[in-house]
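Duplicate of #3305? Posting structure anyway:
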């Protein structure tokens, strides 16, 4: 039977945005307020993403932020969406997330990405070798083995980490990680909130090629989408101008803190930049509650994913929390 919104869990991706006129400390306070709010609303998990050298994102030390959020909440699952594994030795991540799982049992996710989450210059500053991305599949296996204690006879052990059940997800914006997740029998999350082109192809590859593992018997696919909901569509459209300015900055490589909303984007972006943003943000659903419900139902009908993850980029944190509150009734049975 085709899935409906009430049949699946909803979750949250928070990039801990730094807004114009505020600090990284303010961003963390905003993130904690959001996590506490969505926990009460019934969202399943909240993830934070590793980015570096970005003026508008404060989640660079992702594992530390996860610990802060988990300590300030009670039951919501907190995790990475994701840790960019080419930036790290697998043992370090096993120890970090083993520590988190030991502190917050049953509440920690480890999502892994293959991209560096930054530019090449910053990637070199992270002290990882240039070909680290090529070793991603073997690094994933090594990391997983540190938790299971099957590190191919190695005397090196992740303590804490060994024997702990930390769910490991593979994240992707193309078909590569979909195929790897299928081969390894791992849950898969697709970044359709900024890379829509390969969504359906990646989901098909993942489902068709999935091989059951000890940790996952059936394929489990999550997709992330952008949502900005408000009581009236006109307000949602205005709130979305902050999101559009952020997306334009990605296109033009003009990164700056998340800007306040404006009455119109005319004069801010060129025709080319607008087209590029709209292509990249194909799965951005903006409107009132009824309109968002219709759009998300259509997305779920098309993808049949097992879970939806929502990311919302607006300047005012109360408006951001309200947007998630307007969505929450969709997944209540």
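Output from current build:
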């Amino acid at each position: 039977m085709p899935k409906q919104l009430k049949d699946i869990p909803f979750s949250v991706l928070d990039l801990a945005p730094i807004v114009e006129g505020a600090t990284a400390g303010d961003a963390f306070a905003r993130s904690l307020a959001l996590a506490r709010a969505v926990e009460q609303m019934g969202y399943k998990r909240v993830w934070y993403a590793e980015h570096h050298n970005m003026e508008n994102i404060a989640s660079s030390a992702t594992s530390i932020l996860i610990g802060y959020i988990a300590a300030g909440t009670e039951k919501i699952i907190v995790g990475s969406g994701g840790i960019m594994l080419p930036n790290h030795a697998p043992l370090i991540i096993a120890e970090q997330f083993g520590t988190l799982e030991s502190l917050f049992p049953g509440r920690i996710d480890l999502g892994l990405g293959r991209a560096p989450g930054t530019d090449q210059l910053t990637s070199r500053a992270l002290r990882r070798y240039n070909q680290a991305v090529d070793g991603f599949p073997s690094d994933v296996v090594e990391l997983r083995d540190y938790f299971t204690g099957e590190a191919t006879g190695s005397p090196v052990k992740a303590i804490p980490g060994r024997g702990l059940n930390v769910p490991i997800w593979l994240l992707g914006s193309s078909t590569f990680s979909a195929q790897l997740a299928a081969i390894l029998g791992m849950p898969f999350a697709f970044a359709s909130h900024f890379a829509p082109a390969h969504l359906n192809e990646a989901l098909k590859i993942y489902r068709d090629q999935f091989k059951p593992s000890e940790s996952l018997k059936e394929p489990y696919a999550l997709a992330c989408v952008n949502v900005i909901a408000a009581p009236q569509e006109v307000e949602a459209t205005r709130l979305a101008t902050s999101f559009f300015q952020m997306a334009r900055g990605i296109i033009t490589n003009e990164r700056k803190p998340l800007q306040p909303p404006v009455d119109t984007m005319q004069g801010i972006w060129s025709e080319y930049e607008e087209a590029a943003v709209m292509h990249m943000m194909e799965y951005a659903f903006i409107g009132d509650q009824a309109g968002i419900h219709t759009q998300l139902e259509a997305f779920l009908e098309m993808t049949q994913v097992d879970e939806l993850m929502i990311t919302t980029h607006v300047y005012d944190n109360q408006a951001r929390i309200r947007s998630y509150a307007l969505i929450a009734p969709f997944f209540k049975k």
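Confirmed duplicate; merging threads. The chain has a mean pLDDT of 92. The two ends are 17 Å apart (CA to CA).
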